[in-house]
Amino acid sequence: ANMSATAANQQGKKKKKRAAASTDQTSGATSSESKRPRQDSRRPKVAFLGIGMQKAGTSWLYTMLSQHPSICLSVEKEVHYWDMHKEEKGKGDEWYESQFPESSPDKLVGEITPDYLNMWATRIGQMHAYNPDLKLIVLHREEISRACSAFLMWNRIAAEKGEAKAIESMTDDEVVAALTSMEPPHCMGLSEMGKGLENLTTNGFKPEQILVAEFEDVAKRPDQLMNVVFDFLGVERIQIEEEKLKTNFQIKTDRTAVVANKSNKFPKDLKERIMGRLEEAYKELKRRNKKVGGPYLKRYQALMDAKEEK
Predict the structure, then answer these.
(1) Which of 201, 221, 219 minimizes the C-alpha distance to 210?
(2) Least confident of 18-27, 31-40, 67-76, 189-198
């Protein structure tokens, strides 16, 4: 009788465990997941990122996306979670998601931090683990033009702080050295798109999750460019005011400290003198970018041409 009672007791315990497991399965939670906060009690997961290139129209893209009623962007344009706050400052996903204003569940959440394209592979892996379905947008700009624009920005900031000579006081050799350096502010390194795209696909992202668009279309065909972006994100197309489409937006961030309406043009005579040396120095980098980025840009161009025909 005692053995029968013990067996019945053990049978009852097994039934309770099975019932608990069934409840977990019904709610979609595993035992490890049940210890974490429910996703619906937190802010929406980030669904898309603008990841680069730096100085290739990302401030313009942020402003255009902010016009869409179904898109929720971070309050600050550049959150720098994946390249800085997560690893270096030890902040978690809840902090990340708190950078976005309250929005209804049907809004698409995203942010734009150009430095993400050139992150270490381990950090791209963390980004993929956070949301394997992330959609990624890259704006490609001709590599030397991008580097010159970036150099002007950083040089201006450093010169105003007394930390560097103004470009007008630099020799040709000093300017070439700065533009071909892989050291901070990484003028040449941040023109490296091919390696960034390879890091994305070798760390979990599929090519169809990545849209690479051309910076030159920001000026030439901005409405068609935004339609390609809206289609890629899966949101309804909207008509953005022509005046906004054609505005050169420069958004001040804590890292770039952009001064509005300040000249950002490279001295023409200087550029003409050093262009041959820059073309030689950037030759291999541009070859890699074309080899890796070519298929993405070909797909983008086909989408743009199809929209132009309509």
Answers:
(1) 201
(2) 31-40
